[in-house]
């Protein structure tokens, strides 16, 4: 299930998202959050209780989400998370797309998809498959498993083969380990100044870095989302050179994403950063370096993390986030004591998982 503002805006804010998640738990306790704009629900136990099928429950959820939060839902209903997510991704706003459970119906649904349409199949995997002429799901499904394993490796080849046949044995996991973490800054007015936007990104990167280090996680990618005055949004994602929780690396990636968008005259209402594909820091390899500045910055991070833990997030902020003697950084305040709008934390979710009847 994907959420979008009914007036054509972007994903809901954190408060609205939590309300939508609560709305889903009123139908089933098996809800997996996929912030900032999606969720996965296993509704098998709710079908008999409510006396409705999965598509009818999805329609009821959509009506309540519109009435309570002004948010529209695009819903995919299928026998497992893979098919449900693909159906939701392909559907127009407000649509409820159902994939019947019969093998022929699943085959027909998948056959029309390009290789990139399989959930979790990234550009590198698509390029490898396309090199061998496997550019569509039906061609991948027709390939022997051994061939896919030679092209992609044993684990990935087996997974892609199963996905091409609509197989996904993973369960929906409530309270799954975080796979993303994000923060958002809303400006008090439509912001035209790129320096102010970069200051906001700097503080958001510091916020994310501190959270990742506290949680013992590292990110493999970073996503920047920009919301404009007309409520439209633009998102860009950049893979990081190595899994990291290091603030300078996150800041550099955020600046690069911002510069690529070319927002010189754009009226920006909000900016958000999301650390993607989180993994435990203890499992990540770090590139060794002889750069003393890098070691020094990491030692400074450790000190500021301890200060923030003891005295609060405002105890240590980057000086570059301050503007001409006035603290206009997210989380700061004006000289008259009026607090500025600051970073807003998003919820965090994990990969889709579960056999059975699902709505994504």
Automatic annotation (TrEMBL):
<keyword id="KW-0227">DNA damage</keyword>
<comment type="function">
    <text>Poorly processive, error-prone DNA polymerase involved in untargeted mutagenesis. Copies undamaged DNA at stalled replication forks, which arise in vivo from mismatched or misaligned primer ends. These misaligned primers can be extended by PolIV. Exhibits no 3'-5' exonuclease (proofreading) activity. May be involved in translesional synthesis, in conjunction with the beta clamp from PolIII.</text>
</comment>
<dbReference type="Pfam" id="PF14520">
    <property type="entry name" value="HHH_5"/>
</dbReference>
<dbReference type="InterPro" id="IPR036775">
    <property type="entry name" value="DNA_pol_Y-fam_lit_finger_sf"/>
</dbReference>
<dbReference type="InterPro" id="IPR043502">
    <property type="entry name" value="DNA/RNA_pol_sf"/>
</dbReference>
<dbReference type="InterPro" id="IPR050356">
    <property type="entry name" value="SulA_CellDiv_inhibitor"/>
</dbReference>
<dbReference type="GO" id="GO:0006281">
    <property type="term" value="P:DNA repair"/>
</dbReference>
<dbReference type="InterPro" id="IPR001126">
    <property type="entry name" value="UmuC"/>
</dbReference>
<feature type="region of interest" description="Disordered">
    <location>
        <begin position="311"/>
        <end position="360"/>
    </location>
</feature>
<feature type="domain" description="UmuC">
    <location>
        <begin position="20"/>
        <end position="122"/>
    </location>
</feature>
<dbReference type="InterPro" id="IPR017961">
    <property type="entry name" value="DNA_pol_Y-fam_little_finger"/>
</dbReference>
<feature type="compositionally biased region" description="Low complexity">
    <location>
        <begin position="311"/>
        <end position="321"/>
    </location>
</feature>
<protein>
    <recommendedName>
        <fullName>UmuC domain-containing protein</fullName>
    </recommendedName>
</protein>
<dbReference type="Pfam" id="PF11799">
    <property type="entry name" value="IMS_C"/>
</dbReference>
<dbReference type="Pfam" id="PF00817">
    <property type="entry name" value="IMS"/>
</dbReference>
<dbReference type="InterPro" id="IPR043128">
    <property type="entry name" value="Rev_trsase/Diguanyl_cyclase"/>
</dbReference>
<dbReference type="GO" id="GO:0003684">
    <property type="term" value="F:damaged DNA binding"/>
</dbReference>
<comment type="similarity">
    <text>Belongs to the DNA polymerase type-Y family.</text>
</comment>
């Amino acid at each position: 299930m994907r959420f979008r503002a009914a007036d054509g805006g972007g994903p809901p804010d954190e408060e609205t998202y939590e309300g939508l998640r609560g709305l889903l738990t009123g139908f089933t306790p098996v809800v997996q959050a996929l912030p900032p704009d999606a969720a996965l629900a296993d509704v098998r136990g709710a079908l008999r209780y409510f006396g409705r099928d999965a598509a009818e429950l999805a329609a009821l959820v959509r009506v309540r989400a519109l009435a309570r939060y002004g948010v529209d839902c695009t819903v995919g209903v299928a026998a497992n998370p893979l098919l449900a997510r693909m159906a939701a991704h392909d559907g127009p706003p407000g649509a409820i797309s159902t994939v019947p459970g019969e093998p022929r119906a699943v085959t027909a649904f998948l056959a029309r998809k390009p290789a990139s349409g399989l959930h979790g199949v990234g550009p590198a995997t698509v390029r490898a498959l396309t090199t061998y002429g496997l550019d569509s799901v039906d061609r991948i499904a027709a390939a022997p498993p051994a061939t896919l394993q030679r092209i992609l490796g044993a684990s990935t080849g087996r997974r892609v083969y199963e996905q091409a046949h609509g197989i996904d044995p993973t369960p929906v996991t409530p309270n799954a380990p975080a796979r993303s973490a994000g923060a958002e800054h809303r400006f008090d007015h439509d912001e035209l100044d790129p320096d102010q936007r970069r200051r906001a990104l700097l503080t958001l990167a510091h916020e994310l870095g501190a959270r990742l280090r506290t949680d013992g996680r590292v990110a493999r990618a970073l996503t920047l989302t920009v919301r404009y005055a007309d409520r439209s949004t633009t998102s860009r994602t950049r893979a990081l050179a190595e899994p990291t929780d290091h603030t300078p690396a996150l800041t550099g990636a955020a600046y690069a994403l911002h510069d690529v968008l070319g927002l010189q005259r754009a009226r920006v209402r909000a900016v958000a950063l999301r650390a993607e594909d989180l993994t435990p820091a203890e499992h990540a390899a770090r590139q060794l370096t002889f750069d003393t500045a890098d070691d020094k910055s990491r030692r400074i991070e450790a000190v500021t993390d301890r200060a923030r833990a003891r005295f609060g997030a405002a105890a240590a902020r980057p000086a570059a986030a301050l503007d001409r003697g006035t603290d206009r950084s997210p989380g700061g305040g004006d000289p008259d004591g009026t607090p500025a709008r600051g970073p807003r934390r998003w919820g965090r979710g994990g990969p889709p998982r579960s056999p059975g009847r699902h709505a994504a």
